[in-house]
Design brief:
The protein has 94 residues and is mainly alpha-helical. It has two helices and no strands. The longest helix is centred in the last third of the chain and has 38 residues. It is elongated.
């Protein structure tokens, strides 16, 4: 397995350096982007199936969709985790 870099890509703060609002926005944008990619790819796959085309790549995409659904749900859960303490703090300040 390839070793992953621990530095964020250019143009993005490290998650630990983000404010709760920035983190929630980032998580939401990642979730939306992944959902959009899955929708696009599923449409593409359906067209290929109607044309009778099927390759190993198509099979891998089908396998990826279950992982993508889990990632999408996980991103939503992370947003809820970050929002929970943030909302509690805002309630205390009022």
């Amino acid at each position: 397995m390839q070793q992953r870099s621990r530095t964020p890509p250019p143009g993005r703060k490290a998650l630990r350096d983000m404010t709760p609002a920035e983190l929630i926005n980032w998580l939401g944008s990642q979730q939306a982007e992944l959902e959009e990619f899955c929708t696009f790819t599923q449409s593409y796959m359906k067209r290929r199936e109607r044309q009778g085309r099927q390759t190993r790549t198509d099979e891998r995409y089908h396998q990826f969709f279950s992982h993508a659904a889990d990632l999408i749900a996980g991103l939503a859960e992370l947003c809820e985790l970050v929002e929970g303490p943030r909302q509690a703090q805002e309630g205390e300040e009022e």
